[in-house]
């Protein structure tokens, strides 16, 4: 098995966010092909994710490298050409699996989420 | 590549590009073009270039995030490093592998085959009797059967060790492939 990088308490929140971010970005791309600037703006409306553009772009490249999305350049009306991201069949399958995992986690975590963790 | 940008953006993009050493040239150009497109888009919608760059974070940190996601090394062309890392594992592992794999394989097959023959001979008195006459004694046959069983277990053990060794090799190879992480 591949060893997971040590997760100290201080890294916990960013790591949690990062994992969820992959799913959010994939979900946004799944709706319709879109480009980085639009994705950044949509995510900016979710303050809990605390995503900056500096995080979104590297993740987009990672998704592409893993074959979950593909890209194409398209001219925009007035501005510069945009690089669009489109979900692949593999990406859709990965997103489906992520959602299932997420639902399962959510269910499991209701048990530990309460204060004091009482049953 | 960075035509039509203000000097601040231009400097940012060139520093970002410098930080992407290790990526293939065309990939690098695409990364830079995308960030450039992002900045232009934000500026076109009324933002200050300085504010956009501030939110993108320092150029070298952005490049570092790319390298982390794509497991690039910042040293030299990253495929060269990987090639040597894999070569290193191959060279180090090849001599023990040449000895360990055939030896364990031969021992495994030999032990199991020998064990089965011993068990068969021990369990069929008539066959056994053709070799030596003490053989019909129950104690002798049990001893034969037990030996056979032990041999089979030993053979299986050899295969198990072989399996562990192959796992170790795969792990080492994976480690080598991730050297740039």
What's the short version?
The complex is a heterodimer of chains A (119) and B (181). By secondary structure, chain A is mainly α. Chain A has four helices and three strands.
| Relative helix content of chain B | over 70%
Give the number of DSSP strands of chain B. Answer: 0
Integer tally of domains of chain B: 2
Q: What share of residues of chain A is helical?
A: 55-70%
Low-confidence stretches of chain A: none
Fold and architecture overview:
The complex is a heterodimer of chains A (119) and B (181). Chain A is mostly helical. Chain A has 4 helices and 3 strands. In chain A, α1 packs across α3 (53-65). Chain B is built from 7 helices and no strands. In chain B, α5 runs antiparallel to α7 (138-177). In chain B, 22% of the residues are buried. Chain B has 2 domains: 7-77; 95-176. Chain B has helices spanning 7-19, 25-44, 49-56, 59-70, 78-123, 125-129, 138-177. Chain B is mainly alpha-helical. Chain B is rod-shaped and about 100 Å long.
List the helices and strands and how they pair.
The complex is a heterodimer of chains A (119) and B (181).
Chain A: H1 9-31, E1 34-35, H2 36-44, H3 53-65, E2 69-74, E3 82-87, H4 89-113
Chain B: H1 7-19, H2 25-44, H3 49-56, H4 59-70, H5 78-123, H6 125-129, H7 138-177
Helix pairs in contact in B: 1-2, 1-4, 5-7
């Amino acid at each position: 098995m591949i060893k997971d990088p040590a997760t100290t308490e201080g890294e916990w929140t960013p790591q949690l966010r990062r994992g969820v971010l992959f799913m959010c970005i994939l979900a946004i791309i799944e709706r319709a092909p879109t480009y980085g600037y639009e994705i950044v703006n949509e995510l900016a409306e979710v303050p809990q994710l605390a995503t900056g553009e500096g995080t979104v772009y590297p993740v987009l490249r990672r998704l592409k490298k893993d074959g979950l999305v593909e890209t194409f350049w398209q001219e925009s009306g007035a501005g510069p050409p945009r690089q669009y991201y489109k979900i692949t069949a593999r990406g859709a399958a990965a997103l489906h699996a992520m959602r299932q995992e997420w639902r399962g986690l959510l269910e499991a975590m209701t048990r530990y989420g309460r204060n004091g963790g009482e049953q | 590549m960075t035509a039509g940008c203000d000097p601040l953006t231009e400097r940012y993009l060139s520093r970002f590009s410098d930080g992407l050493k290790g990526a293939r040239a065309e990939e690098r150009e695409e990364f830079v073009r995308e960030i450039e497109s992002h900045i232009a888009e934000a500026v076109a919608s009324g933002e200050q270039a300085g504010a956009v760059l501030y939110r993108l974070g320092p150029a070298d940190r952005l490049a570092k995030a790319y390298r982390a996601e794509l497991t690039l090394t910042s040293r030299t062309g990253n495929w060269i490093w990987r090639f040597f890392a894999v070569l290193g594992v191959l060279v180090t592992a090849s001599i023990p592998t040449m000895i360990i794999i055939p030896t364990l394989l031969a021992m495994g097959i030999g032990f199991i085959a020998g064990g089965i023959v011993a068990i068969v001979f021990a369990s069929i008195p008539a066959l056994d009797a053709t070799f030596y006459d003490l053989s019909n004694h129950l104690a002798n046959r049990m001893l034969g059967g037990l030996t056979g069983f032990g041999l089979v277990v030993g053979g299986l053990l050899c295969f198990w060790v072989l399996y562990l060794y192959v796992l170790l090799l795969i792990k080492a190879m994976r480690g080598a492939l991730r050297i740039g992480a």
